[in-house]
Design goal:
By secondary structure, the chain is an alpha/beta fold. It has eleven helices and eight strands. Helix 5 runs parallel beside helix 6 and helix 10 packs across helix 11. It has one domain (38-318): TIM Barrel (Alpha-Beta Barrel), CATH 3.20.20.140. The longest helix is centred in the last third of the chain and has 16 residues, at 303-318. The two termini are 20 Å apart. 31% of the residues lie in helices and 13% in strands. The strands form two sheets. The chain has a five-stranded parallel sheet with strand order 1-2-3-4-5, sandwiched between helices. Strands 6-7-8 form a three-stranded parallel sheet. The chain has helices spanning 8-11, 74-81, 95-98, 103-111, 129-138, 167-179, 195-201, 220-227, 256-266, 287-296, 303-318; strands at residues 41-46, 86-92, 116-120, 141-146, 182-185, 207-209, 235-240, 271-274.
Length: 320
């Protein structure tokens, strides 16, 4: 288990209310224990953005007034995460604000070396895709987000059930495999079967499915579509965004059956916990309880399994 244990549920009871006032205190320097710079947990999935739209412009489809919340910077994220024992975060490009312009995430990765790893969004049809991916990797990108939707407005592509069949998508999978980049599908449960042909064709490609693939424990067909993917040994599942499932409120105990099913199918070494901040902080939800559920709330997990889900898997995929 991690040495961090200051009563999580009390530390961060009301994260959303503090969004506008958060400041980073002591996050730039982290104590070293056991020779490791960052022995704490890893949040495998969070979004960030900045109100500094002069330096980091929004896409032309959105205005600054439409950003909600108006600010969730790297500093605000770390101020929420660190009291819960989370020292590193995989930050996911937020398409509705930035599209495939990953500049803000790359800047944060540079300013906080070792603290962040980036999952970028790329336009897979660009002619210089190989060079572009290599350049992104040099700047801290370790994964690419994919899905059957358009980047900014999240509307479906013309033929969503065949979203992976385009030659440009196959080229992206080839390059991701060669460059050891993790592909992170953001898909609804109905799209889980569409992964099967590509997984068969690209057995060396590392996959981390976002948010349980949006499968629900009380929908057997969805859960089966997810767990069947476990036969592909490089497929991982993010047990993330607890606010989306069950009662959609803390302490998230009702998500336990879903996590249990994923653990039985994939095993803890192929599971990664993620918050999906800042959305995990809204509507009465909070960060502390999301950590606590995996840290101490699931009796079917032993200590090594908890550490795998909260730290080791994400560290291996995104920080090694």
């Amino acid at each position: 288990m991690s040495p961090h244990r200051p009563t999580r549920r009390d530390v961060l009871a009301h994260g959303a209310a503090a969004l506008g006032a958060m400041t980073l205190a002591g996050c730039a320097t982290t104590a070293r224990r056991g020779g490791a710079a960052y022995p704490g947990y890893v949040d495998a999935h969070s979004h960030i953005w900045t109100p500094d739209t002069e330096r980091f412009p929004l896409g032309p489809w959105i205005t600054k007034a439409e950003m909600d919340p108006a600010s969730f910077t790297a500093e605000q994220l770390l101020a929420v995460a660190e009291p819960a024992g989370v020292q590193r975060v995989v930050i996911i490009q937020h398409a509705p604000y930035y599209g495939d312009n990953n500049a803000y995430l790359l800047d944060c990765c540079k300013r906080y070396p070792g603290r962040f790893s980036v999952v970028a969004i790329v336009e897979e049809r660009r002619n210089d895709l190989a060079d572009h991916l290599r350049a992104l990797k040099r700047q801290g990108v370790r994964g690419v987000r994919i899905g059957p939707t358009r980047y900014a407005d999240r509307s479906m592509v013309a033929d969503p059930m065949n979203w992976l069949n385009a030659p440009t998508m196959r080229r992206l999978w080839t390059l991701a495999t060669d460059l050891d980049l993790v592909l992170c599908p953001l898909i609804g449960a109905e799209f889980l079967p569409t992964l099967e042909p590509m997984l068969a064709d690209f057995p060396r490609t590392t996959i981390a499915i976002d948010h349980f693939g949006h499968a629900h424990a009380d929908r057997p067909d969805e859960l089966r579509a997810l767990t069947q993917l476990a036969r592909h040994e490089r497929v991982h599942v993010k047990v993330s965004a607890f606010y989306k499932f069950g009662d959609r409120k803390p302490p998230y105990d009702d998500v336990a059956p879903l996590i249990h099913a994923v653990a039985d199918a994939f095993g803890p070494r192929r599971m990664l916990w993620g918050s999906d901040c800042p959305y995990q902080l809204l509507n009465g939800n909070n960060y502390a309880d999301a950590v606590a559920l995996v840290e101490s709330g699931l009796d079917f997990l032993d200590a090594p399994a908890r550490d795998a889900i909260l730290r080791d898997t994400a560290a291996r995929l995104f920080f090694s």
